[in-house]
What we know:
- By secondary structure, the protein is of the alpha/beta class.
- It is 28% helix and 21% strand.
- It has a single domain (2-206), classed as 3-Layer(aba) Sandwich (Rossmann fold).
- α1 crosses α5 (182-195) and α3 runs parallel beside α4.
- The longest helix has 15 residues, at 123-137.
- The relative contact order is 0.16.
Amino acid sequence: MKVAIIGASGKAGRVILEELAERGHALTAIVRDAARTQHDTVLKRNAFALTTEELTDFDVVINAFGASPGNEHQHVDLGRHLIDQLRGTPTRLIIVGGAGSLYVDEEQTLRLADTPDFPSAYLPTAKNQAKNLEDLRQTVDLHWTFISPAAFFDPEGPRTGKYQLAKDVLTVNAAGESYISYADYAVALADEVEHHRHDKERISVVSV
């Protein structure tokens, strides 16, 4: 498939690009600075300026954008821009979300970001990614999937090729840990790209 990755030079974006490249998909890295990626096909563009015409050239657009400190509102701003450009089209939007918007109870009354021990430094990102998810859920004419990692999203962890999926409640693995490596998260995301099993849904990923 033809897949574009916004933020392909970021930590998660690079790993997702590598996983999809291994699977033989036609990939385009959408980045502001082409020097930050070694991928062959690059679209040098400010993500906020991407047009419907540009985006609908792809089967799937992956939003792996990471906002800098103090600019966390851009998760909402970019999310709304992509919704506006892609609604009513067949192009699918997959969002690399966060764990902060996951609930910690089965009754879904308390989100992880609202618990006392949630790191304050990550709270603005968590709140804005949660708002992005809310905007997506209020959009009816868009094919989207929001994928949250486990609470410990490990950039150094191994690729085991195994994972388990959950929905809106924070889930733990057999060791009682909410953990996923970037590499195994990328496996789960690539599987969703290929199989499209969770249209208009948020899913979460944890190791086995």
